[in-house]
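task queued by scheduler; priority normal; single chain, no ligands, no partner chains; default sampling; output format set to structure tokens
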Amino acid sequence: MKTSIYSVPERIFMLDCARKYYTPAWIKRLILEIKSAGFNAISIHFGEDMGHRLESKTYPWLAGGDHSLCVYGAANGMPENDGKFITQDEMADIVRFAQSEGVEVIPSFDSPGHMNYAVKKYNAQTGSDISNYFHKDGKKSIVQGSSIKKEPAQYTYSRGIDISNAEAVEFARNLYAEYGEFFYSLGCRKFDIGGDELLGFGETIDSTLSKWQNLDHWDAHAKKLTGNENAVAYDAFILYMNDIAALMRSIGYEKILMWNDDVYRDYDTGWKGVTELDKSIDIQYWSVKSNGGKNNVYTYLNRGHKVYNFISPYVYYVVGFGGAKYGTTPEILERDWNAYCFDPENPENNLPAPDERVLGGGYCLWSDSPASETEDELLENLKPYIRACGKKLN
């Protein structure tokens, strides 16, 4: 494959195998497909809002799925797959297969948001509530999973964990430690720790304030941890992400990745810079309108981070919607996008190529509406997008 000035060293395909169960055989077929298109890495995203699809030895009751938590409504989930997950032996085989084909595996586990399923399972198993709630002026309400479909499950179970709750944090840290050690033993050296969309899409207590300003418990937690009265709820989030990154580095991971939408967010948080995100965390740039539209790729680069390009208008395939969700076709992707195009509507926010601060980019498969496409249908539907993206990354 001919190399262009827009080529990047890391060409990643992101597979959300948490919301939808994919057989190990299908994942191997996908690996061969992305390899043929010039990708050299697969990010395996196994924990999400409606499922946790990788066996846990620490919490053997955890893995599985819950179709009632489907963001587009239970009818779009797959109840027959609720009990299905990938065993650690099966995952080890997948990792070795990928490596034998020259494809790196990047494990991906998202917290403190996108944990609806894990929170529901933990609460039921232990009788202890690690859910996150909005707290304001003595009132309390659940941080809802979604507002797209007003189904009871989305309004009953929290979007994620309460990071001011030591038990909740211990649960998440134990999962990162277990999976970190497991994948590290298989030769993986990068880990995606998530950090996106953590406050959901539902109602708060005081609608005149932002969601971040409805988190009195996080605000108090941040002030306690920092000893600084200027600390706010957002500082608690940064401290949490830094702690998880440090944990993964202690295992031996050389690169830690997270998503960009809640990084350097000051427009609605009251953040005064009491804490700073660890500069060695690499940023997966997907949300062009982050921080109320104030942030662009230079926001992260100028603070010392390196970046990956996963902008949703071009390189997101959502099961049940395909590229059509964002109006993208393989032809549009190939014509208009490259790994240095971070803001198609504002060219001044793009980067001239080449730039070594752009570590890579890739294509994302998100399984939001899992019943919409079978494995075989999905792979055929994906192929033109995979090939078009592969051309632009090489």
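post-processing summary
- The longest strand covers residues 358-366.
- The CA atoms of residues 85 and 224 lie 39 Å apart.
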